[in-house]
Each structure stands twice: as C-alpha cells, then as structure tokens.
Amino acid sequence: MNEPLTRVDHSALRVNQAVIILLSLIAFIFDMPALVALVGAVMVSGTALKQPGFKFIYAGFLKPRGIVKPNVLADNPQPHVFAQGMGGAVLAIAVIAFLLDGALIGWALTWLVIALAALNLFAGFCAGCFIYYWLARLRLPGFDAQPPANTFPGMRPSQKAG
Q1: pTM of the predicted model, to two decimals?
Q2: Closest to 156 (Cα-Cα) out of 130, 124, 120
Q3: Rounded Cα gap, residues 143 and 161, in angstroms
Q4: Distances (CA, A) of 102 to 39, 95, 105, 107, 111
C-alpha cells in the first residue's frame, strides 16, 4: 500500500538535526555522556510521538519569532520518524557503552549520529530515510511509503506542498 504524500515541514526536521548535532558536540567537548543520554531520550520520545524530538524549540521559539521560516514539502513523515528512531537507538547503545566503561565506543557511536545528522542537515541526504525506502522495496511490514516522485530515496524532495 502506497500512502499519499502529506505536508512535512522540513524546517522542523532541520532544526531537530541542528540541535542533535550541537548538543552531541557539546557532550563530546565537555565529556558529558549524560547529555548524550538526554539527546537520545528526546529522539526516542519524538519517535514515539511521530514528530521531531526537538520540535518544541522550532515551534515554541524559532518559528513564532520568524527566526526560521517553515519549509513545507510534499513528503512522507514515516521515513523521518524511522530515521530519528534509528539515531535514538544508536545513542542508546552509546549510553550502554559509556556505562560499561566503553567510552571509545560510546563516542564513536555519538560521532556516527553527528555525522549522519550533518549529512542530512547540510547535504539533504537522510541515511535513515534511505534505509526505510529500501525496506519498503523489500515489502517488509510497516514500511509502506515510497519516495516522492523524481526524488532519489533519502534525498530531500524539492516540490513544495500545495
């Protein structure tokens, strides 16, 4: 079943990515695994709510003040939610590594999340979305959405929502 595209505010997604990157970098610089745990928890809770975890920063502060303008595109929200859940899961594993005295593994996993969030933020390629669309091609249950027309799987769509 191919669900129709909906309206997805990519500004909310990009703010989410920027906050994930910023907080994760602060955690690394100041050696704060607890902050990695907080970022991961926000990502997992956002996934459960089917929205960007740090959407409250965008919707409650940046958007109302006109600091960041909405960028609503015709897109599928499911791959973005899946990607955020994957990132949250990776950070959960990082936290377990920190708790087991595996700081090197914990920071490596944190840097993986930073790198993939940066790839999405700056290049418009969402690795988690790419994986979601490949799982949909394999017809795995729960992976029903297809990429927007004329969009490479994982790339940010270019068409504005109507």
Answers
A1: 0.94
A2: 124
A3: 22
A4: 19, 9, 5, 9, 14
What's the domain count of the chain? 1
The Cα–Cα gap between 37 and 22 comes to: 14
Residue 162 lies in a domain: no
Domain with 48 in it: 6-137
Classify residue 153: in a domain, yes or no: no
CA trace torsion 17, 22, 26, 28 (10° rounding): 50
> Three-state SS across 18-69?
HHHHHHHHHHHHCCCHHHHHHHHHHHHHHHHHCCCCCHHHHHHHHCCCCCCC
- The per-residue pLDDT of the chain, averaged, comes to 95
Size (the chain), residues:
162
Using 70 as the pLDDT threshold, list the residues of the chain that sit under it.
1-3, 160-162
